[in-house]
Specification:
By secondary structure, this protein is α/β, with parallel strands linked by helices. Helix content is 38%, strand content 16%. The protein has a 6-stranded mixed beta sheet with strand order 1-2-3-5-7-10, sandwiched between helices. The longest helix is centred in the N-terminal third of the chain and has 14 residues, at 35-48.
């Protein structure tokens, strides 16, 4: 029998929806065994696929979304007991938006523990939906591990909540607490998690993809701009809607009282 991939990559709705599943349940989907590389390749594949409009990332099983770095593997590498395999793809650990020029919507379906690097994987996504039993945290300070990706955490959280997570790293937070501080968009029973994530993904399929991607880019890039620069950037970006067939289809569908059929052209 063929060995199961550490990252399952599946599509639905004629390829419009991508579902990536971190598949190391025996290691709580920890980022070892080639999983980091596989996630990088998965995001690059999604970014390059014009037919794919939205992606969901989740973990196998209901115990862990991703438990972060595989510390057993990391310990062996740092002691010289195991060789590390250099990865040619590391930019996925930084914002997918700017790092991959990825402006398609992305969803994290958090089905259990999202710790350290697991938090990072979910942080890269635009929205996060969590199962009620999920717990989350950024534990790097407990083990003297680096976490440069927390630089972007204050785009998603108030400073005091970010500090709570990264300095008081000995405690995890519940899915409900993550919702209360604004990091998780919705909390649902675990048996409804993927149905809810798919419902969010399916809503994207009825939107004009170029307009939705414009809005994402305006918000992400505009975060670091002055208001004047941000407004100028937004106005300039909107020009890529001019002349599109979708720009005719949208108002036409409204006038005809029907759902528009967008083609991203």
């Amino acid at each position: 029998m063929a060995e199961e991939p550490v990252l399952k990559y599946e599509t639905r709705e004629n390829g419009r929806i991508v579902i990536m599943t971190m598949n190391r349940p025996e290691r709580m989907n920890a980022l070892g065994g080639g999983l980091s590389q596989a996630i990088a390749e998965g995001w690059e594949r999604f970014a390059a696929d014009d037919n794919a409009w939205v992606a969901i990332i989740t973990g196998a099983g209901d115990r862990a979304f991703c438990a972060g770095a595989d510390l057993k593997e990391t310990s062996e590498i740092r002691q010289g007991l195991r060789q590390t395999v250099p990865s040619r793809r590391q930019h996925w650990a930084y914002p997918l938006s700017e790092g991959l020029n990825l402006w398609k919507p992305t969803i994290a379906a958090i089905n259990g523990y999202a710790i350290a690097g697991g938090w990072m994987v979910a942080q890269q996504c635009d929205v996060r939906i969590a199962a009620e039993h999920a717990e989350m945290g950024i534990a790097e300070a407990r083990w003297n591990m680096g976490a440069g990706w927390i630089h972007d955490l204050t785009r998603q959280l108030h400073l005091q909540h970010a500090l709570e997570l990264v300095i008081w790293a000995d405690a995890r937070i519940t899915a409900q607490r993550a919702y209360e501080i604004g990091w998780v968009n919705k909390v649902v029973p675990k048996e409804r998690l993927m149905d809810e994530a798919l419902a969010w993904a399916e809503r994207v399929l009825y939107l004009a993809p170029r307009a939705a991607r414009n809005f994402k880019e305006i918000l992400y890039r505009g975060y670091y701009m002055t208001p004047e620069m941000g407004r100028a950037f937004a106005r300039a970006l909107e020009q890529n809607l001019v002349g599109m067939q979708d720009s005719i289809e949208g108002p036409k569908a409204f006038a005809e009282k029907r759902k528009p059929v967008f083609q991203n052209r």
